[in-house]
Amino acid sequence: MNRISRDVLVAVLAVVGFITILGYAGSYEWAEQVCYTMPEEAYYSILDTLGDDASQKDIAEEYMSKKEYYDNLEY
Length: 75
Description:
By secondary structure, this protein is an all-alpha fold.
């Protein structure tokens, strides 16, 4: 492999890695925002359903998949 090919490969891998990191950070930020804005009753109901080891992303995905149901919960 010559030097130009190696440099191009390194550049491509760096760009792919950077985009992957940005995607992960965006996903984490989205989950945090959803969990922060959801009703407290919904958060604790989902946590009871999924268990204490559920991640913020798991909670956010569950809430968004059944948003209307969780928004109408009352305790």
